[in-house]
Amino acid sequence: MRRSVTWAELGSLARLAPSPHNAQPYRIRPRNDHRADIVLLTDRLLPREDHGNLYVASAFGIFAATLVRAGLHFGVEVCVTADPLIDPSRLEYAGPEVRVGEATIRGAVQAVEQARLLDARRTSRIPYDGQVVEAESILAFTDVASRRDHRFVSYSDDITVRSVLRLNADAIIDNLRLDAEREEIRPWYRAGETPAHGDGLWETPMNQTAWTMRAAFDAPRVVGAPGIRQLARWSYVRTQRGTRHVGLLCGRFGRWRELVSAGEMLLELWLTMAARGVYMHPMGSMLTNPRYAREIAARFGVGDCWLVFRFGRGAEPPRAPRIHNIVISE
User: Which residues contact 24 (CB under 8 A, 6 or more apart)?
Assistant: First the structure.
């Protein structure tokens, strides 16, 4: 007889779901052996940077899709439904914990191994190998996005790639000069040896030294001063050498249902990349800053771009820590 699968087992894989600033806000709160609430811990929101909580709301879709895959890995069908009444823009005012959805274990299915692929999907901030990703893979990525009514747009010419990398560096420098945004994200940037379990953005997975991270937060106006700014930009772009592709994801990204669907698609895209040995590095700073979002819209002729990223192949990037336990027990 097949044994029952526990929420702890499902959570052991669902915890690998990526989230903004690796500040995973979603938890599983079991109601019984077969039903659980998905709750959001609002002290992990980033409302000053993530305007309207759009990206953390889309991360619910990422989390839900990861939980479904966790079920497949253990041989059970898991269904996740989002609460239709959620208003992403009001999440930080809803108390310490918000029920955003429900997960149900519906029964046994044929097990399909998922753990290796979920672990292989990593953000890669290290240099890439300088090789062009083949057209067959680009078409596969385009198809994943189009099935959810989004557009995957990629560029591989040197002028566009270099200009986007420089623009991203400028966006990071300028965002750190915004006091409220900087202080909101400061606790999530951490120096020292990367722990096996945890959260936040650590220096090794970030491909940064401790002193550069400290300087960026402690002296942002000095880093942004003429001369030093150019040096900081050059230094950051150098960590991204070997990049031959930049990409955009475009589509509906405003209402709760749209955000959940976008997140589900993003996980599918990321895993499709991982299966083909391709890594992605999202450049979030360019679209959370209205000035740079307008620049991207004008430069590429798009009014609905919600993610800019570089992608390619290279060495396996360092593993970012993940919270050891995301199941809330009473």
Answer: 15, 17, 44, 63, 199, 322, 323, 326
